[in-house]
From TrEMBL:
Pfam families: DinB. Keywords: Metal-binding. InterPro entries: DinB, DinB/YfiT-like. This is Damage-inducible protein DinB. A divalent metal cation binds at H50, H137, H141. GO terms for molecular function: metal ion binding. Belongs to the DinB family. It comes from Hyphococcus luteus.
Amino acid sequence: MISPAHMRLMAAYNEWQNRSLYDAAATLSDAERREGRGAFFGSIHGSLNHVLWGDRMWLSRFTPSEAPDAGIKESASLFEDWDILRAERDKTDAHILAWADAMTGAEIEGGLTWFSGAANREITLPRWVLITHFFNHQTHHRGQVHAMLTAAGAKPDDTDIPFMPNLDAVLNRG
């Protein structure tokens, strides 16, 4: 089981790491960000789009917000323009932080039923399992982006939670 404090920590970590990756990616040209690099979603740009798509898809299940119009197959091309992609990432990270700040233990313990397009069926699971997946999915694909950025010569920040710049403030909230 996870707690509201864990959600706040992971939401803050998510925002920090996204900012780091987007800052590092901004040092590359648009062509370098779009270059096929053998990742599941092809490129840095495609992978960042997919993470944003996944976040918005899950947020539409967790909160009153809209799901992306595109399906998973189109998730790598959610936003073609780099500046728009980055601005939408920032808006979504703010949404994730606000959602995590508002969550209670009772809400985390409840269940969630949704229709999975990937499995083509309705699924019900404990909300805490799905929240864990939500944050784990981000970390998985950010690791891929980090590797692509490093190979391209860009330098993202450290990824270790104990070195998160605002860790003390996050731990003392709530």
